[in-house]
User: Fold these one by one.
Assistant:
Number 1:
Amino acid sequence: MTSLVDGYLSHITSACAADLSGAVADYIPELAQVDPEGYGLSLCVHDGHIYSRGDSSVEFTIQSISKPLTYALALSRLGYVQVDTKIGVEPSGEAFNEISVDDRLRPKNPMINAGAILTASMLLPPVRDVAPQTVDEIFDELVAFYSACAGRQLSLDPAVYGSEAATGARNRAIAYMLDSFGVIDTDPEAALDLYYRQCSLRVTTDDLAVIGCTIANGGVNPRTGRQVLNQEVAQRVLSVMTTCGMYDGAGDWVSSVGLPAKSGVGGGILAILPGQLGIGVYSPRLDRHGNSVRGIDTCRHLSTDLGLHMFNLTRESRVTIRSIHDIADFEIAEDWGDIERLYLRTCRDRVRIYELQGDLTFSGAESAMRRFEGDLDDVDVLIVDISRIGVIDPVARTMILNFKHALDDRGQRAMLVDPDGVVRASVDRHRNDSTLPDLAAPQALRGFDPTLPHVHGTIADAVIDAEAFQLKQRYPA
């Protein structure tokens, strides 16, 4: 059975792939050589499960997506006071490569080039003649940190590194401007070299999604379980990404997409839903701001269709499945005969009950659906008790109904224990809502098919119906 989330990601990538606007970055010669058709999407949820579509295994250079990571490393090493003395946290409202400082002669934030170069300089020793070996050692530590965030060893693209170093006149001007203001305490050339190297690390969209989820999880890598950075640093990084990560397009991004994010001129976008998931997108055609055209479109769809805007006021419970058990503890109906009793005594483990709790939005529904899908070969009937669910949003409701229809097609059955009519009420409220997500399943499109799954008052009622369903399958009329 194809996952509902996989099906949706296939649907959205097919839709966004049609946009051929924008152009690859040509001011760095090596980047001008990339395939403009490349397009990959990855989503990593809080437990480390990754959904990938398209060119998710294609490596590209991280470029400016490195900026929040180096900023996190500097905060971890030096502390807030020392870093804040040198670098502001205010949106610049200017292009990423603007030669820009505030009234205290600080770069306005660490997401523009001036701030990123100064951040890199702060990792180096405060001397005017930094040995190449020292830069190598600091870079090795930086790569180790990035790799810990991604959950695998990352490596340098030497061709891109050489190309950036050979054509970086504007960045060199920025570095020496900062040096003239007295805010760089080290060798400007060493700072530039470290900055060019960090931008030239190879990543995939899977890597970006895991990095994003590591930050979303308060610094814990969901794949390795390792605490890579502390929660306070993760919080600061998310805050600055929210206000400054998309450069002079940050305001529109926050209002329409609502995810802390960082783009890179290599075509990547990293987006994060705090506490829940990380998103990595790759498509090298860029808009006038230097952001991936398809990447932005993809993130808009994900945010709108799946309700991922960080200011979505629906509460979220990560512990969605309260308990799982079969129906062995329920009594067989007294009026059933010996054949029915014999069958149910041997097959009752083919009916499984899942009790959910909390509030159900995309993240919780995804986790529950993945558990259901993993059990499908072992059960004929799934009973889903949502009596402890407080809120179910349109996205989660659509996912549940899609899952019910998918089971119907397999000759299996899903039933809801919904004594308060939460799902029915949700369908009634949103039946004609033109903003509902199109999850690429005909039964769940706008103008929803009015056939609802069976809604029962209690688990016992559902068990009786489930047993009757099994008997019908075993002993057809």
Number 2:
Amino acid sequence: MNSSNGLLDRIGLFSQTRWPWLLIAILSAGLVLIAHNVFQVWLYMKPCEQCVYIRFAFLCMTFGCLFTLAWPKALICRLIAYVCGVYGAIYGIMCSVKLSDIHHAIHSDDLDALFGMQGCSLEPHYPFGLPLEKWAPDWFLPTGDCGYDNSDVPMGTVLSPLQESIIQMYSDAGGWYLIPSMKFMSMAQCCLLGFIVALAIYAILFVGDMKHVAGSKKAA
């Protein structure tokens, strides 16, 4: 019991430094940058409705970290980070599950899998009524169909050998996969795993943080 309490106290102390929040911010913002600059711009994969929602979810996590990066020892700032982070992770899980279901239905040999499946819209509706698709359309306006993550290269585009080989690899696999040759882990499944891991990290940090805060109050 003492060893577990000691571990929670160390986690609580760690949560009051900038390091965990900097790591979360870099990973969350980095994934959004990769999705836009690499897959959308460089590989011509158009983002779907659920894709841009997933971007929003990662940015919610990033936004919360800004407060703790500025004032890591302020409890209110850490609470804001927890709320934004948990909200972003849960919202991302919901969008990833929906995208995964659509992807499975579209690529399934069972035609009944498509029955009752709700597709994607090109008019997104973000939480809190945020018009992100108007503020940054290149980042948050969906232009693709859910479940179809193949490259749509404009006519006349001259591709580099590296671009061509990567696009061909995903084309042969029928879409984006972590391991294309095995069709292992679709983009939606990778995002789902990432959000689940993020939610677990937030939970561990929060428990350790609250344990340390409670212990500090008792000591005082």
Number 3:
Amino acid sequence: MFPRKALMGAVALATLAGATVAHADSPEVFRVGILGGENEADSLRNYQCLADKLPAAIGVKEVKLFPATDYDGVIQGLLGGTLDYAELGASGYAKIYLAKADAVEPILTTVQTDGATGYYSIMVARKDSGIKTLADMKGKKLGFADPDSTSGYLIPVTSLPKDIGNVAVKDYFGETGFGGGHENLVLAVKDGKFDAGTTFGSGVGSFDEGYTSGNLHKMVSKGMIDMKDFNEVWRSPLIPNGPIVVRTAIDANMKAKFKQFMVDLPKSDPACFSAIQGGDFTSYTEVTPAFYQPIIDARKAQIGG
């Protein structure tokens, strides 16, 4: 079950964005949705550089940031036309595509430091729990990050059965639940509320640093966790990096300027690029809906929408 606080956060975001729906196509304001999973203050701080730079780059008077406490708040804002841009996980994009295929356009995704355009779902457990393998997790309590998270839910429930003897997740683990976002999920594992939990990372670089990017890396960078306290229990197959999406209906000239701004960002402002991405990446590369078709198909089969 979703925590009530997270649900209220989604409602609050939709209400806030909805208050300006009459001006959704106005070139005066550009609305940025920020996925939940990290605390709001950190999210706003990381995205402030975009709010400062985008007005001049794309020709608007103001950029407004709308952080959500869960994924669905941003998803509904994009579906409702009250947000203009967000960076989504692949499963979140699939949810929008299955509801309204032309609501948004995926235009770019990130490239890892090793050249990959993917990342991993990573299951972690406390080192002092003695849990090192999936066999150790049989009958134990597994935590997921968010129902609309690719790495925190969709990929684990579709990929884990192959690694646990073709048994359904609900039948192998003693109990499952949601942590209310990636950051909260890892903290819940740290606090012993779950025996293990699924979050995400690049899988590149040092485990002690939480790899080069992803939720674990961000939490290490903020001093929230020490990876020496955790074991990596399981890693998924490579997952497509989530897309930067823009609302299809926005002005084509603005869309082109925004895309170019983002393509240039890794070189024009590396610190801003790193802040909004939460780690080390090399660049952006173009994507189309076809890049996400396997995730769209997986979501349709597993969740239905």
Number 4:
Amino acid sequence: MGVYILLKIHIREESFMENNKPIIPADKSGATHPPRRHPRFFRTILFYLGIFGPGLIAANAGNDPGGIATYSSMGSQFGYSMLWVMVVLTIGMGLVQEMCARMGAVTGEGLSDLIRENFPLRLTVFIMFIFLLANGGVIVSEFIGIAAALNLFGVPSWIGAPLGGLLIWLLVARGSYRHVEKIFLVLTFVFFAYIFSAFLAKPDWGAIATGTVVPTIQPNGGYILMIVTAVGTTISPYMQLYIQSAVAEKGISMKEFKYERIEVWVGAIFSNTIAFFIIVSTAATLFVASHGKGVAIGSAAEAALALKPFLGIFASRAFAVGMLGAALLAAGVLPLSTSYSLSEAFGFERGVGRTFQQAPFFWGMFTLLIVLGVIVAMLPNLPVIQLLLNLYLLNGLLLPIILFAILYLINQKRLMGRHVNRLAYNVVSYALAIIVSGLAIFYLLSQVLGFFGVKLLG
């Protein structure tokens, strides 16, 4: 689902620097010694690992329940014919993420800060409401994922969802979440199994090549719906909030930005490569098993079937472990980052270091988002995969509003100076925003007209 999602990995220079000089550790006698310098080649390797590490790891955490549901459904219902969508979305994700990262580097402010400072109050409230709606949907999806993963171990939703919510709230409120998020992150690496499953399922590589480079559009509602859902999954609004805030907090200037730009693009490619193989593996197993008719995935257990060529009888349990780790990771960070952004936008006190009395809006919003996710996840007989798809469809429908706000800000010379978008960048970015808007409007129009018996799509 995309880079910079879910994991708050920040470089805390203040832990190692004082007055812009490295803190030299003292030995047992109290004497200080300059740090030992490693060979130049070794330092170079460490430098580039430092650039790519956080982005790549965070990108893998983006393969959360909603992402798995979307990409699995693309493959199981439409085979290899939607692979080209991921190529386009990789470019789109890289462009949008780069713009937000660049704004963070130039202005030193988060996206919600810039929205508050540069838009009228009513428009600011509207845009932040869109963010809340989109983020709230994703948060709900994470708790649905927690419940669905625990269901595969025989734990009912009415127990699993509240336990997950209580665990996340206590970890964040007690300040110990950062100690366990790495464990949750490691659990998500099970989704690398999709790559091996894709090869072991012996897919039609000719059809894969065609589906990747030849765009095809099927004139039916399910295909258009899946494209809009894929857009909302891959370029989710909360990603923009996170990347800009992360760059601003790390204090990255335009002098160092070339490295951040590399990480943005490497992260986008890495993230969507995993998504690509999820589509391939589900197409090679579930779609082929349906003899090309397509099959709608109805549960987490069915989504796990695509891992059978590699994991065999362990597929369901491994899938459950990976989904549980990704969902817990997201369920901790997303409500927290959403509460930060909304508090920031409206000037309220914020921060996990503050008490409820000091930051009531921040803690109230954080708690409310978790409670909402838990309540929805506890509902009986929940159509898990379909609900996850609908929540990311909502993201896709709301995304155009966020994209146009970003494009307005990035082209303001008073904010960005000479770092505004160049013409070619604007052409591609506005084309993306217009196409996404067109798809969203077309889908909504088809749904409205459908109530009156008028069909725009087959």
